[in-house]
Amino acid sequence: MTESSPLADSSGVTIGDTGEFALIGRITAHLPDSDAVLVGPGDDTALITAASGSVLATIDVLVEGTHFRRDWSSAADIGHKAAAASLADIAAMGGVATALLVGFAAPADLPLDWALECASGIAAEAAAVGACVVGGDVVGSPIVTLSVTALGDMQGRAPVLRSGARPGDVVALAGRLGLSAAGLAMLSRGVSVPSTLVDAHRRPEPPYLAGPVAAAAGATAMIDVSDGLVADARHLAEASGVCIILGTSAWGISEPLTEAGLALGVDPMEWMLTGGEDHGLLATFPADVVVPPPFVIIGSVADVGSSESGGEFPGVMVDGQRREGPGGHVHFGGLIRG
Questions:
Q1: Model pTM score
Q2: pLDDT tens digits, residue range 33-65?
Q3: Strand stretches in 92-191, DSSP E
Q4: Arithmetic mean of pLDDT over the chain
Q5: Domain that holds residue 133
Q6: Residue 250 and residue 226 in one domain
Q7: Dihedral (C-alpha) 31, 65, 87, 22: value to the nearest 10 degrees?
Q8: How many domains does the chain have?
């Protein structure tokens, strides 16, 4: 997947040829602005408005060979993916993103066009939610690394934390499950089809607008599904001191997932339960609240020690069985996410 960019027009030139400050100038010259930005790139720091009087802040770091491969994804794809990882965290608090700060590390022989196209992808993903890139830093490194800090605003709402789920709540999901993991599995076998799965891995589509919608509807807890449904449901369960009960019998498995599972000898449900980087939103709502679309109810919240929970500690139950183990990606575990 490629993306045309007004930034990328220097074929054969490397970022080493260009130099740090000229590279920054090439990137920032074409960045869009926003009403939330009082001072943008060009000074020592940016100045961002905080209409609600508080600022959401989060950061994600993507490292070449761990989170992406340049032979599998275009520079624009990688830019979109890097921005999406942080923007989804803002949405998971029920907030609206306002600005991004980007740290970019790369070897001197990296083509300038690649760097500019990546920057274009980051800017485009930010623009999709009304945010913009307001600054960052550029350094030399043996491998490409992207560090994206997202800032956001609650617009007068209270943040939706991981710790608010209560027994009796329903569990609901907005977004996709398992597509990115299946796409990574196909790419790892040297196959770039089905495109639905491979494209989902290269460029996630988080349901950004669903975060503020959930907050306004009274969501009690919420989390970005970045590492895997079971893993992130466990984070929510542990923070809230509850058990998350999931049942897969009513879940639909898409045709591309089914086909990929048959081709690789993998149960596609495992991709849906443990695959990360689709960046869906998992939320809990009181049982008497109408769960807003695009959220779909996929489970319930039970008290620890109840007959439903299957144990004395917070955790996750799937189809009546307690799920042990990581349930998704764990850093420092030697896994390559692509």
A1: 0.89
A2: 777 878 877 777 888 888 888 999 999 999 999
A3: 96-106, 132-140, 145-153, 170-174
A4: 90
A5: 15-153
A6: yes
A7: -20
A8: 2
